Amino acid sequence: MRAFADKLINILEKHRNDIAAEWCKGVRSNPRTPSYHKMSPEQCSSNAIMFYQNLDRIYFDKKPYKAVIEYFTYYAEDNYRKKIPLHEAIYALIMMRRQMWLYAEFQAPFFTGLEHHQAVETINKTIRVFDHGIYIMTERYLELMEAE
Description:
Layout: H1 2-14, H2 16-29, H3 34-37, H4 41-60, H5 65-81, H6 86-107, H7 113-147
Helix pairs in contact: 1-4, 2-4, 2-6, 4-5, 5-7, 6-7
């Protein structure tokens, strides 16, 4: 599984700017994320680029929760400072995850049964990363709101 995940993560890291640009186009035009509409493409894509840069560290860490906490705490604080409502920041994360898998699907078709099984395991682990991230981000947003 490690070799397959390495290949997939490498594709995502190598093309992080392209993936982030596509995500940014989507989030800047989606009716569920109006706070992103006024952002410049550079400002918008910075969080996605940062996530894709750190994906290897987050994904392969034996105890990834610390890396997940670090990234998603930063994500929450950055979006909070930008006055992005929590529900929009969460939906943007969902779109980030979706964009990542759409890109990977077109770059690395899964032909064999073994590869398909490994892809499903990789997808499930990545979904857990995002699920933990959404929890951490929500918790941090609430702390920031209470502090005001």
